[in-house]
Amino acid sequence: MRIDILTVVPELLDSPLSHSIVGRAVKKGLVEIQIHNIRKYGLGPRRTVDDYSYGGDAGMVMMVEPVFRMIEELKAERDYDEVIYLSPDGELLDQGICNELSLKGNLILLCGHYKGIDHRIREHLVTREISVGDYVISGGEIPAALLTDAIVRLLPGALTDETSALSDSFQDGLLSPPVYTRPAEYNGWKVPDVLLSGNPRLIREWQDAQALERTRRLRPHLLEP
Questions:
Q1: What is the extent of the structural domain holding 56?
Q2: pTM flag (> 0.85)
Q3: Could you give the residue ranges of the DSSP H alpha helices within 93-199?
């Protein structure tokens, strides 16, 4: 898999994509992640990538030409399955979307900044828009890092135990049950006896019941038909 991330602040992406599971997946050759500075195609001596919005609204808007030229350059080298714009009003990211995107070959992630991007980019270049929540942050870099992490950890070989991802929250439509590790008792707080029983059937039944109870209490909408 290859993920190309387009941004005006590439420094924001260096650390989160260089360590832990994502960093190890890159070193293993499971994924190639390229971060591109849109200012490469900025206009004029100052490499300008934004301008005032028509209509007089406050805030600067990312211009069409630098984004268009960068995407065209990438598309000349390979085919892309999706050009994704990280936007507050895109489809809300969930585990199903992550699972779907993890099966793709090549992705472009476009990070908005300032007031957003010229809408013609969304109309003519973007194939999909994804939001990480109903709130606004300074730019699309953090959402792009979040989406990349959620995708990469699903790639075969990214996790030491590939079955681990199958028991994550949301994979079966439920939240995960509580998890514990050694010691069995600390400060008077005990691990549930069933987890120490060594009985796989009883443990699984307890985990299923806990997952259902937590989902009903914390994410009841997941249980709706």
A1: 2-152
A2: yes
A3: 95-101, 119-124, 141-152
